Amino acid sequence: MTNDTNPSGKSDTAKGPGLEEARLRQQAIGVKLRHLFDDVVNEPVPDEFLDILRRADERGSDKA
Predict the structure, then answer these.
(1) Which pLDDT band holds residue 17 (cuts at 50, 70, 90)?
(2) pTM of whole model > 0.85?
(3) 11 pLDDT more than 60
């Protein structure tokens, strides 16, 4: 399988600094999104939400 991301046959450097700048910007956005996602994942779960989950589990086990 070939990678046809550049069908013109020209190298990416021939497209100038705009392409490189766009790639760097895209990479920076990706890094920031990963940090944001990690922060959200590592946030503690509120006690009220844990209580709701416990009650839901208890109701589910009562039906079984």
Answers:
(1) confident
(2) no
(3) no
Q: Could you count the other beta carbons within 10 Å of the beta carbon of residue 15?
A: 13
* Average pLDDT value for residue range 23-44: 97
DSSP annotation string for 3-63: --S-TT---GGGG-HHHHHHHHHHHHHHHHHHHHHHHHHTSPPPHHHHHHHHHHHHHHHHH
| Alpha-carbon gap, residue 50 to 44, rounded angstroms | 10
H-helix or E-strand containing 48?
A: helix 47-63
Residue pair 12/6 in contact by the 8 Å Cβ criterion: yes
Which two tokens mark 29?
């956005």
CB distance 9 to 2 below 8 Å = no
